[in-house]
Every structure is written in structure tokens, then in C-alpha cells.
Amino acid sequence: EADLTESVITAFNGDDARALIKVVGGDTTFLDYIGSFGTAPVSGAWDVAGVTDATANHTLTRKRAVTSGNANWTLSAGTNTADSEWIVHDQNTWAYLGTHTMTDPNPLSEGFESGAIPDNWTVINNDGNANSWGAHGNSFYAHTGDYFARVYLNPQGSDDWLITPRLEVASGDSIVFWAKSSSNSPADLEDFNVKVSTTTNNSVTAFTATIGSVSGASNTWTRYAYALESYAGQEEVYIALQCVTVNGFYLYVDDF
Fold first, then answer.
1. Which of 107, 242, 254 minimizes the C-alpha distance to 166?
2. pLDDT tens digits along 213-239
3. Residue 81: pLDDT over 90
4. First to last CA, the chain
5. Which residues contact 12 (CB under 8 A, 6 or more apart)?
6. DSSP H helical ranges for the chain
7. Distance between CA 36 and CA 16 in Å, rounded?
8. Any residues with CB less than 8 A from the CB of 243 and at least 6 apart, and which?
9. Locate the Cleaved adhesin domain: which residues (predicted)?
10. pLDDT over threshold 60, residue 21
11. Of 95, 86, 152, nearest to 125 (Cα)?
12. Where exactly does CATH 2.60.120.200 map onto the chain?
């Protein structure tokens, strides 16, 4: 339940940021954002899902696969219909008012709490050095729980793959996980790709589609979500996280 305490929130013209905030005592938590606080849009409003000025004179609805807020507006807005959390409709689209129908956004649930990479996952050390993906226990560094997965640097350039088990993808599914760079040095931030195979999980050459590419991942835990709608109905889909950092430090991932 939310109470409207002042009318200005409803006077939204598309170029003012709006946030959903939870305040408990002296603690303030930003749960969700529309727009970027302190930074005006380049034109009249913010672009969303590749639509120019989408936050003005349009109706925005969250995708069914989105089940929580996102305080990172850049990731939430996205740059196209695939990576955005939003669907941009014509102005005065009323069909979705007051409800949000959700589907399970993630056909997978893995936090590595067994203390090991599960047997039905695949690790490929394609760069051939001594470092590859493994589970690590430290509740201070984990996103949640006590364990997370990580891979250590390769000075010549990492090519380390962490591959999910076989997934059966339904309409509305996304692959969702949290990741971060372990270092706060700009020179050591991690780079990774998110890739898809529809044939096998034991050969990197099978992962011909790239659905995400991150350069210089933040050193704070960040949620990444990639729609799998184009694979809906397929019963053999594998998702790979490919670390490609050159001489970084550790790449951490957790909570698929």
C-alpha cells in the first residue's frame, strides 16, 4: 500500500525523475526509479527501449518478467526492446492500469550455497591458464547467503565460461543474475559477455548468440536481466557467462 501525500507526484511531464522510496527510521532505500535524479534528459524526455522521449506522451508498463524495482535507471530503461525492463505503449493506454501480471522471470535458481559449482553446470577454462570459475565462501562478499561464484584474472586475457544447465524457455522468461567487479580500481573492472547456445553446453563454439555485453562492471552488486523471448518454446537452451577481462582481478556472480 502507498499513500499519496502530495499532488506533485501526479503532475509528471516526462522530464522529472520519480523514485519509489522506503523509509524506516533513519534508513532510506531507493526501490525503483523513473528518470535520472539531478540529470535532465538530453531532449524533452528520457528514451526507453529505443523509443525517443518515451517518458512523455506515452504509457509505460513493466515487462511481466520484472518482479522487483530497479534503482539503476540506465539498466531499467535499456536501449532497445530486448534489454529494457519496459514496454512503451501509445499515450492513454489504460488496459494495464492498477495491475501488474508477472511471470517467473528466471527459469533458474542458483546461489552456489552448496559451496561448489553444481554438477549440472559447466565450467570451461578456454584460456588454458590455471584459473577457472569456482564457488567461494564469504558472506561479507556474497550478494546473499554465504557463497558466490568467481573467477580470477588472466594477464593475457580471460576466456572463462560459466554455463547453466539445460533450460526450457517459456514466453516471458528472462535470465537474471547479480554480478560485480571485486576491485574498485578503474583499471581492474571486469568485462563479460552473456551468450546463448541451443545445441550443447560443452563447446564454446556452440554459443553463437550474444544477448549481453558488459564492459567495466561496477564494483557494487548489480542486477542483470536479459529477455529470452526469442527462445520461447525451445527445450534446450544454455546460457553462458563468459569472462573476457584482460588482467583484471576477480569477477563475482551470484543469485541466478
1. 107
2. 999 999 999 999 999 999 987 889 999
3. no
4. 29
5. 18
6. 73-77
7. 8
8. 133, 151, 158, 159, 160, 161, 162, 190, 191, 192, 251
9. 107-209
10. yes
11. 152
12. 122-254
Tell me, what DSSP letter sits at residue 155? T
User: How many residues are recorded in the chain?
Assistant: 256
Strands 192-197 and 209-214: antiparallel
Q: How far is CA 239 from CA 20, 35, 119, 138, 159, in A?
A: 32, 31, 15, 25, 15
Q: Which amino acid, one-letter code, is at 73? A: W
Provide mean pLDDT across the span 124-151: 96
Report the alpha-carbon distance of residue 108 to residue 106 in Å, rounded: 5
Cell of 206: 556452440
- Whether 255 has a pLDDT exceeding 60, the answer reads yes
Please state which of the ranges 65-69, 90-94, 249-253 shows the lowest mean pLDDT: 65-69
The CATH number of the structural domain formed by 122-254 is: 2.60.120.200
Region 27-56: mean pLDDT is: 87
DSSP structure string for 191-228: -EEEEEESS-SS-GGG--EEEEEESS--SS-EEEEEE-
Q: What is the pTM of this model?
A: 0.63
- ∠ Cα 67 85 56 (to 5°): 120
